[in-house]
Amino acid sequence: MVDRDNVGILDTAIRSILACLFLAVAVEQILPDSVSVVLLIAGAGLWLTSATGTCFIYKMLGIDTYHAK
User: Fold this and answer.
1) Phi then psi for 66, rounded to 5 degrees?
2) What is the pTM of this model?
3) Nearest CA to 22 among 58, 52, 46?
4) CA angle 45, 50, 54 (to 5 degrees)
5) What are φ and ψ of residue 30, in 5° steps?
6) pLDDT, tens only, 12-44
7) Among candidate residues 6, 11, 1, 2, the one with its CA nearest the CA of residue 54
8) Which of 42, 11, 13, 12 is nearest to 25 (CA)?
9) Distance between CA 9 and CA 53 in Å, rounded?
10) Span 37-62, mean pLDDT?
């Protein structure tokens, strides 16, 4: 079964920008360690979904910004 893309262009751009910001703050360790770990995980997740074009949370909720009508 082939996964269909469900993340649109604008959504991908926003996710990419947020991922870069989250990962930069996490790597610089400006905030406490626990917050940095959360930002690292969130940034990695956003980067993964923007790179693949598939969001599993969107899939569970039935949201599709790629094929929006």
Assistant:
1) -80, -45
2) 0.84
3) 46
4) 85
5) -70, -35
6) 999 999 999 999 999 999 999 999 999 999 999
7) 6
8) 42
9) 9
10) 94
Amino acid 3: pLDDT: 63
Residues making up the chain, counted from first to last: 69
Instruction: Kindly list the distances between the CA atom of residue 57 and the CA atoms of 25, 28, 31, 43, in Å, as whole numbers in the listed order.
Output: 24, 29, 27, 15
- What is the pLDDT at residue 5? 86
What pLDDT sits at residue 4? 79
Rounded distance between C-alpha atoms, residue 32 and residue 16, angstroms: 23
Torsion angle of C-alpha atoms 15, 43, 51, 54, degrees rounded to 10 = -70
Nearest residue to 4 (alpha-carbon basis) of 63, 60, 53, 57: 53
